[in-house]
Design brief:
The structure holds two protein chains of two kinds. By secondary structure, chain A is an all-alpha fold. Helix content of chain A is 74%, strand content 0%. Chain A has one domain: Helix Hairpins (Orthogonal Bundle), CATH 1.10.287.3510. Classes of the chains: A mainly alpha, B mainly alpha.
Amino acid sequence: MLTIGLTHYLIVAAVLFCTGLFTMITKRNAIGILIGVELVLNSANVNLVAFDRYLGSERMDGQIVALFAIVLAAAEAALAVGICINVYKNLATIDVDSASQLQG
Amino acid sequence: MSFLADTNLWSNVPVGEHLFLFSPMIVLVCTMLAVVAFPIVLGRSAAVTATIVKLGVITAFILAIRVAGQVTDGGVSGLSTSPLAGLLIADNLAAGFQIILLVFLGAVTLLWLIGSASSEENSPEFFILLLGSALGMLCMTATSNLLMIVLAIELASLPSYAIVGFNKRDRLGAEASLKYMIFGAVCAAIMLYGVSLIYGLVGSLRFEDVAEYTVSQMVSGQNRLLLSVALLCFFAGVGFKISAVPFHFWCPDAFEGAKIEVTTWLSVASKAAGLILLARLVVILCSAVDYPIEMSLVQPIAWGLGIIAAVTCTVGNFSAYMQKSVKRMLAYSSIAHAGYMMMATAVFLHPSTKGYEAGLTALFVYIVIYLVMNLGAFGVTALVSWETGSDKIEAFVGLMRRGPWLAVPMVICLVSLVGLPPLAGFMGKWWILVALGKLESNLGWFLVIVAVVNTLISLYYYLRVIVAMILKDDGQPVIHASLGGVAMVNICGIVVLALFFLQGSLKTTSERFTRDLYQAATNQDDSHRLAWKDL
């Protein structure tokens, strides 16, 4: 019988992180990139909570960070969608490649 | 409510005198609330908003000066239930930066009043965002806790994304804010993942513990790869704020798309805050190293910082070369200046216990000087572009005849940005080079050469604007800039000149603000740490 331990959580988190990173790199749609960002943020949350559950005994710093991170992700998503709507109104697309008037 | 009896929660509520040390931040929060609340009663107008913001910033500034007088050497950490794990720190460095940032906030507000106040319908929202990012920057410089660093960077960044694309009908602004936001969100997410790995390895969110752990792992050679990955991920977030290469792509686009007062704000304030944060982290790392035995262990970190600084500097200068827009040129030059300032952080890893002092003082001096000269240069660019509707170099042609009161401070600030005597910019570079020379290692000499070569490169593109202003003239009409703006840029010019001659007192003041940083006792008490088992 397989017992679920810290390693399993860390693997889940690492898979989430890689999926998120891959999404961020390959997607050209701004919302797609943001979904990748959310995946990476949540992989960090899984890590933090798992470390607390399996390694710590007294304090819960990791869980508190995870709570803050959830709020942070929500704030960031709200702002990001607002900016995307603004871009869509102006450029009629949210493809990041077509946003090229500024030569970075 | 039995759990309340078990904890010593109430005995650890921050006391009044500790809260007073954070009063400038509290005043900024109150100003943000007032800016939303008062227009409901008094009606939405730029005048009401401007009055509230002026009052708030001036109050915060006065309090910041009083706080700087009260901060004890070594500082305190506050807002914590444990004396060892404070989220916010009040020490000399944080207090000094508070004063500088509030002065700069006042100047940006003034610039906004001159240029945008008359046409702005959404002034309360603009100032919520501006003050919010200022608050985030203050928090960034006053913490060594990983959670607070993440929160502060986000608090500084999120309003910045919105403020760059503030004008809803502006296509460039929308595009700039999209790029800035996506880049920032990616860096923040990667940074949080780094923080989670660091927490898993170290078992604490205090950077003092992280530094101690890093050094011990470097000695024993365990977990080296994982720790390096975690620290690199974490650095992505800090590097994004400093716009260090390779996290600099957002910088020129965001700066060009934003309104010019916003560009002024972001170009100096966010970089200065990021650099102070980086400096604090490096100092903590240094203090965990046992000199001089373990010196070789931190050499790779010093080289890493130094090389990133050198690359940042060079990339910024070469990109500024071909720019036609003065605003964009100044944006790239701000990347280059971030590189010079980052060189000072490589100095901290010096082969003596107190070696970081020269670097930290040089960094602080440079930030003060850079703030004034950049404010002057951006101020003139703003006034010219508001009058002519363009920030291209062509708009500056013949400025010496069209507006001598603008041209003279612009020349002073640009020459100072190059770093030529007898102007303050020279002193800024000089102290950094002296600190690098004291390093007496290959890294130091390498960085000195890079800095000098870069200064020569930068001479060309700054000089191009000066030549256009003085030597050319194509008969464009005379510029009638507003009196307040002219006064501000001329004050900047005079201060840049004066700081060169007052370099002694500037250095003394900087030394006062950079000595005796807050250092939590690292080794004395391990009870605050988790009982961390091995993986």
